[in-house]
Design goal:
Length: 314
């Protein structure tokens, strides 16, 4: 556990990423943290990772974007766990994904499950968060579909009936920060999902409407969807769609209800529902208005925090 008194150092791996930025901003705003550093580092290197972890009381490991094809979420998590153990850092908070399971249909979900297992096996004070698709002003989900509809007259959509329960990035960040000091969250997994379910087709239509250029959206049969994914895998760069994405979408990306959710951490989804709706509209409308997008791929260096001694209760 993080000591209740005295300086507290928190390391956020991937602190400039989509989720990591919101976590860092919330830590600064709510905990009044005076220092923030963004050192560039290769987190695949054992010695570098150990040096980063050294001297900290807690490590937050936000979700990182994954490419298509084969995935390896196990080795990076094993490296993080080993660095924490070697440096005597027990508190670890990790962001995974809904639908992970050793027998899941996709490489992505099975690899995520293996990553969770590697962290659990390390015997740390671990809390895991499993979000649905995360949206926000800098997301690469709603903004991508908004951009596509600004360019294409129609949207032929693979996996149109796939189910999602989008969660606002600020709610995910709030859940992570809320769990940081709570001993009852150790050893638990939390599902982070929004207040409503949508099909992929519904989300794509909303993205187009809110961005100001709605287009007809029609679902593709499975065979044609697979062919579309195969062709996109041949394009340079990270493909917008892969066959593994299609296999992942076979699993509903919604809360199962068998694990605690945001409410267990004091986050009232209903109370903030209007704010989330506005946030989702703004994140897509900003693209339609030509605003500078902040979700371009970039390196995600870690953040370091040094917190002051807690004020005495008075």
């Amino acid at each position: 556990m993080i000591p209740p008194e005295g300086p507290r150092r928190i390391l956020v791996l991937g602190g400039s990423g989509f989720v990591g930025r919101s976590v860092c901003e919330r830590l600064v705003a709510l905990r009044h943290l005076p220092t923030l550093a963004l050192p560039a580092a290769d987190l695949r290197d054992d010695a570098t990772l150990a040096a980063l972890v050294a001297g900290h009381d807690a490590v937050i490991h936000p979700q990182q974007p994954a490419g298509a094809g084969r995935f390896d979420h196990c080795r990076p998590r094993r490296l993080v766990a080993a660095a924490c153990r070697a440096q005597g850092v027990r508190r670890l908070l990790h962001v995974s994904a809904l639908g992970v399971a050793p027998d899941a249909p996709s490489d992505y979900l099975r690899s995520k499950a293996a990553g969770e297992a590697a962290l659990l096996a390390a015997g740390l004070d671990l809390t895991i968060f499993r979000p649905s698709v995360i949206f926000g002003a800098a997301d690469r989900f709603m903004n991508t579909f908004a951009r596509l509809q600004s360019l294409a007259p129609v949207v032929p959509l693979a996996g149109a009936s796939a189910r999602f329960q989008p969660v606002w990035v600020e709610d995910v960040a709030a859940a992570i920060v809320a769990a940081l000091d709570r001993p009852e969250t150790i050893g638990r997994t939390y599902e982070c999902a929004g207040p409503a379910e949508f099909t992929l087709a519904e989300l794509v239509r909303l993205a187009g409407t809110w961005a100001g250029h709605p287009r007809p959206v029609f679902g593709l049969p499975d065979g044609i969807a697979g062919l579309q994914a195969r062709l996109m895998e041949c394009l340079p760069g990270e493909p917008l769609l892969s066959r593994d994405n299609l296999r992942s979408m076979q699993v509903p990306n919604v809360a199962t209800g068998t694990l605690p959710g945001l409410a267990a951490l004091g986050i009232d989804r209903r109370r903030a529902g209007a704010l989330r709706g506005g946030a989702m509209r703004r994140c897509t409308a900003s693209y339609g208005a030509g605003a500078r997008r902040r979700d371009a791929p970039r390196a995600s260096p870690p953040c370091r925090f040094l917190t002051p001694r807690r004020p005495a209760a008075g």
